[in-house]
Amino acid sequence: MSNANINAVFYADTYHPIQAGSIDGTDTLPHDNAVYRAVLCSAAGLYDPFGDPKVIGDPYCTVFVGRLSRLTDEESLRKAMSKYGTVKNLRLVRHIVTGASQGYAFVEYETEREMRRAYEDAHHSLIDDHEVIVDYYRQHLMPGWIPRRLGGGLGGKKESGQLRFGGRERPFRAPLRPIPYADLQRLGIPPPPEGRYMSRFQVPSPPRRHRRSADRDDSSRKHHKHREHSHQQKKRSTSRDYDFLDH
């Protein structure tokens, strides 16, 4: 196997539990009970990504920070993440009964530019001597998302026996076997992007906010009005110049 094949990877834009459980994104059957549970949750619509009342803020300005030390508190996390921009909101997820940190948090920045800086530069940085992972806010921005507690999620450790692929930490490998296009289409799983694989060393870009057509129309109208205004000013200025010459 060549180094080019080893380093050729791709990332998931949408979430499908069966695909997430596949090292190359081509599995068509659940390979563990957790994947099967996630498939049932997805098919039955049992998970509502917008149903958590604790979730606030702009998802396009928010990053997920995982693998935090259980000793890291809100103050030390805010200090660490403020290196990349102005932190607007921060939620360190804690156990509902004990109040102990669950080891992950969500950090919202003032702007998308600051979020992207944190996404690129804070990944694998050290906070309280723990190497953290940083990702975009998949709960709201990744279609089909199912969290780990329901058998989904991404990443994971080998010891858990529930590795999930297609994310930043564990991308899909370029398939070395024939791709079962018909079966993937039947299950609604997007096939690997043959010929358009990325290098393992490239940073996948988080989703960008789509401007609404109304916003584009409004921007176009403002630009048109600005051009008309500039044209009128130019005409008045030219008229005054001619009046001055006549006198």
TrEMBL record:
Question: Which species does this protein come from?
Answer: Ensete ventricosum
Higher taxonomy: Eukaryota, Viridiplantae, Streptophyta, Embryophyta, Tracheophyta
**Keyword Glycosyltransferase among UniProt keywords:** no
Entry's Gene Ontology molecular function annotations: mRNA binding; snRNA binding
The question of whether RNA-binding is a record keyword is answered with yes
Q: Look up the record and give one Gene Ontology term from the biological process aspect.
A: mRNA splicing, via spliceosome
**Domain called RRM: residue spans:** 61-139
Keywords tagged on the record: Nucleus, RNA-binding
Comp. bias intervals (Basic and acidic residues) = 156-172, 238-247
- Pfam families in the record, alphabetically? RRM_1 (PF00076)
**PANTHER family recorded:** U1 SMALL NUCLEAR RIBONUCLEOPROTEIN 70 KD, U11_U12 SMALL NUCLEAR RIBONUCLEOPROTEIN 35 KDA PROTEIN
Transmembrane stretches in the record are none
Q: Where is this region: Disordered?
A: 149-247
Indicate what this protein is called per its UniProt record.
Answer: RRM domain-containing protein
UniProt lists compositionally biased (Basic residues) regions at: 221-237
Q: InterPro entries under this entry?
A: Nucleotide-bd_a/b_plait_sf (IPR012677), RBD_domain_sf (IPR035979), RRM_dom (IPR000504), U1_U11-U12_snRNP_70-35kDa (IPR051183)
- Tell me where in or outside the cell this protein is found: Nucleus
Could you state one GO cellular component term attached to this entry? precatalytic spliceosome
